[in-house]
Amino acid sequence: MTSTTNIHFKKNGQTRYVKHGFSWQLALFGPLAFLMRAQWPLALACAAFLFVGSFVVAAAIILIIDPEMESAITFWSFAIPAALVGQFGNRNSARSYIKNGWLPVDAFPHEWNIPPILPTTAVVGGQATPTQRAHL
Length: 136
Prior knowledge:
Elements: E1 6-11, E2 14-19, H1 24-29, H2 31-36, H3 40-64, H4 70-99, E3 103-104, E4 120-124, E5 127-131
Antiparallel strand pairs: 1-2, 1-3, 4-5
């Protein structure tokens, strides 16, 4: 199977998709991107992670490196947590869709480590039929 760039979810005749890979939208806009996706719990968790993460990274930089430029502390204390949100945000978004009853159309990439909680829907002969998670 080729690499999947988007994973589509279906529920009540609606389709949503989650991109596979780093999310610049989440890295740059953080909780606002989750709010645009109507995922309120993830937006709150993202905001809390960015708030706490910036303090933890700033404290680590001050204790370990002790830089003389405050701009370096400010930049890295926001850039590192934002990069982590961008890296893992789409995986959490996909897990949230599954927990809320959205059925995935394709199998997930192995590196996402999402267990096959629900069967995926594969198109066989022009009709959607439920199948088990496909091996990638």
